Amino acid sequence: MAQSKADLILHPIRMRIIQALVNGRRRTTQQLVKELEDIPQATMYRHLNKLLKAGVLEVAEENKVRGAVEKVYYLSQGGEDATPADTTERASGEHMAFFLKFASSLIGDFSAYVQQEKYDMRQDGVSIRQVQLYLTDEEYAQLLEDMRRPMQKYAGNESGEGRRRRMISTIVIPGALSGLTGGADEGEEQNDVGRANEDGN
Q1: What is the pLDDT of residues 154-197, one digit of tens each?
Q2: Which of 40, 139, 157, 173 is the most exposed place for a label (fewest CB within 10 A)?
Q3: C-alpha angle with apex 7: 3 to 12, nearest 5 degrees?
Q4: At what angle do helices 41-53 and 12-20 cross, to 10 degrees?
Q5: Any idea where the HTH arsR-type domain is (predicted)?
Q6: How does 118-152 read in b/e, with b if 16+ C-beta sit within 10 Å?
Q7: Residues 25, 74 contacting (CB under 8 angstroms)
Q8: CATH number for the 8-82 domain, one of 1.10.10.10, 1.20.1250.20, 1.10.274.10, 3.40.50.300?
Q9: What whole-number distance in Å separates Cα of residue 72 and Cα of residue 31?
Q10: pTM for the whole structure
Q11: Cβ-defined contacts of 103-108 (< 8 Å, 24+)
């Protein structure tokens, strides 16, 4: 069975490659290997080829470097977006598989963080929070726009200059239409890490 676009994208390594190319960034394989230093070069080539064949990435130019051809990759327009079939026409089991892949990438990032010899969650700005809001479709669309606007201001930042990679992931799960009552209290819910960061994310 052909691999869906969502299944292709929701792979921890391919997600990181896509994130490295957002906002019009262009990178060679060597630049990506340097930026995502924990990914071996052979693995990088393999995932780049998968994304290229799927049309998620395109080649902006090819340069000859010491007798070899070096490709410069960029994200095709809408390349990182799942197709309507991936989001509305699949069985619930498949959607759960997609979600578990995404969740596993978050677990991997957090695991790598807490396995450091030294860390300070408050100082590092670790924040894990959940907020429950009641919104119309219009209010929700406006909220997303309000959230994206300030993040766009920093989306073009390059690594270096004292900057540290910070993964900000959003997961929005609408309440089931058949059961909107019960569950968590209205308002913001936080785990202990969220409470520890109340004074600053």
Answers
A1: 877 877 788 888 888 888 888 887 654 444 444 444 444 443 34
A2: 173
A3: 130
A4: 80
A5: 8-87
A6: eeeeeeeebbeeeeeeeeeeeeeeeeeeeeeeeee
A7: yes
A8: 1.10.10.10
A9: 9
A10: 0.57
A11: 104/12, 105/10, 105/12, 105/15, 106/167, 106/169, 108/12
Q: Where are the domains of the chain?
A: 8-82
Q: What is the pLDDT of residues 4-36, one digit of tens each?
A: 666 777 788 888 898 888 778 899 999 999 988
Spatial CA neighbour of 94 closest among 7, 169, 9, 8: 7
Q: Which amino acid is at 74?
A: Y
Count Cα atoms within 13 angstroms, Cβ side, for 88.
3
Task: Quote the CA–CA distance of 138 and 151 in Å, as a whole number.
Answer: 21
Cα 6 → chain centroid: 13
